[in-house]
Design a protein that fits this description.
The chain has helices at 13-23, 54-62, 111-118, 129-149, 158-166, 181-189, 210-220, 232-249, 269-279, 285-288, 295-301, 315-323, 348-359, 365-380; strands spanning 2-5, 26-29, 44-47, 65-69, 86-91, 105-108, 174-177, 197-199, 226-231, 258-264, 305-309, 329-334. A 6-stranded parallel beta sheet has the order 3-2-1-4-5-6, with helices on both faces. Strands 8-7-9-10-12-11 form a 6-stranded parallel beta sheet, with helices on both faces. The radius of gyration is 21 Å and the shape is globular. It contains 14 helices and 12 strands.
Amino acid sequence: MAILAGQGARGARHELEEVAELLGAGIAKPLLGKDVLSDELPYVTGSIGLLGTRPSYEMMMHCDTLLTVGSSFPYTQFLPEFGQARAVQIDIDGKFIGMRYPYEVNLVGDSAATLRALMPHLKRKEDRSWREAIEAGVAGWWQSMDAEAEVAADPVNPMLVFRELSARLPMDAIVTADSGSSANWYARQLRFRGQMRGSLSGNLATMGPGVPYGIGAKFGHPDRPVIVFAGDGAMQMNGLAELITVKHYWQEWADPRLVIAVLHNNDLNQVTWEMRAMEGSPKFTESQRLPDVSYEGFARSLGLHGIAVDDPGDLGKAWEQALAADRPTVLDVRTDPDVPPIPPHATFEQMKDAATAMLKGDPNRWGVIKEGVMTKAREVLPGQS
């Protein structure tokens, strides 16, 4: 059995854990539900969808029962094939009932209350082989993510930026991510736990919300640390201007920690990769290249804290400095645009189109090939160096 727990299940953490334990199920989370359950639970498979994890994908492809709680996740290609699984949906809003998948039983109600009413009718599944396989897959996935983050890059592997933060995240942190490659690594590399909250533009994938979301989080919770991940394209679109907003208000916040980590690669990276993987088109430098800007320098000019990182060995210390600062911080990290956001469930067509882009003379082809091979090897053989 597979459970899909969206943001509508945020108040049903205890009930979800009980149901998963009773039924020996795994739990996948859409991006907007990343903070619904701790990623330290061994049966939580993580994100689902194009930016999702291999354990989530495999669980959905092989399950015979699906329970969806508080989610209107629209991408049915990442759910069980129609006819493969019997399905139940719980949602507080009747207009979402049966909208995405052919559910047999549709329950309109609060997630926690409905699960509590359902539990007396459930029998514990004694055969735990399905659950054990899910847990083994999750453990292997996190090993792969650690190994991929360690792949050498020029100069910094963007996955390492997220991995180095993950273990250092304060238990009450709020994390936001912009659309683009920031969302890839947010989905796969960060392990949420405790009372951590997180959000991004999960419905529209709008460019530019990362820093505004972070500022909004500080106004909503001025006593909690907030971390923002944004690409340099989003920073040039509106993030730099929003730093002026931060300058204007930050001294009103009980906890001044607002850390904005910039993936500085001078490339509209997500679109570059989409062109390669979806159209078979090589990178078109004239449309993708960004002006080089010192983001930490701009922050310092406003009286904020700024840290520049171009050595992967300095990342851990930089995060510790940013999380201990007495004012908002811009962490300006020079990342490698050639590190591929390879979905663990990449289709043959996507791989063929990416290869076509290389053959057509992509200007970054040798870096892309090197990083792609090394990253995929680490996913398949995480213990190898």
